[in-house]
Amino acid sequence: MTVVTVVSAVGGVLTAALAVAGWWARRRLVVVTVRGSSMLPTFQHGDRVLVRRAPITAIRPGQVVVVAAGRPVDPLPPDYPLWVIKRLRAAPGDPVPRHEVPALASVPEQTVPADRMVALGDNPAGADSRQLGYFYTANLLGVVTRRLARAPLGTG
């Protein structure tokens, strides 16, 4: 009976640990499907990526982020229709990249404000900070951690 009790206790602990891990993953990780061509050649329409929710302080220029366009809305749901995938060019406190971003050419500040960021598509033909100006850090979903296998046809 002792062996059965130990196995049962270990199984209960393992089940609880898996439940906690699943809860944590759902709160911290989001799968996003790329729509459009603004991140070509890095990501193509239909690619799926894993996004780790993270504050702007945990992300560095050069990393790919998912952020909502427009004014801050709190809270932004994962199925919000205006998410975009872009490469972080400048975080709060970084110099404003005026020469790369026409929409910011005449802003008075020398550094990116604390609640804003500059994000650019890898394909310059897409809409990004070059046309829209700053993105709000409050609208940041997170950072792309990896590319996932493409969804089978007809599933997304």
Describe this structure in words.
Helices cover about 20% and strands about 25% of the residues. The protein contains 2 helices and 7 strands. The chain has a 7-stranded antiparallel sheet with strand order 1-2-7-3-4-5-6. The protein has about 160 residues and is α+β, with helices and mostly antiparallel strands. The protein is globular.
Outline the secondary-structure elements.
Blueprint: H1 2-28, E1 29-33, E2 48-53, E3 64-68, E4 83-90, E5 116-120, H2 129-132, E6 135-136, E7 140-148
Antiparallel strand pairs: 1-2, 2-7, 3-4, 3-7, 4-5, 5-6
> Poorly predicted ranges (pLDDT <50, ≥5 residues)?
1-7, 13-25
SS class: alpha+beta
Helix content: 10-25%
Principal-axis shape equals globular
Strand residues, percent: 25-35%
Q: Rg from C-alpha positions?
A: 20 Å
Largest sheet: 7 strands, antiparallel
Please state the average pLDDT score.
84
Our count of helices gives: 2
- The SSE string, one letter per element, is HEEEEEHEE
Number of strands: 7
Distance between the termini: 50 Å
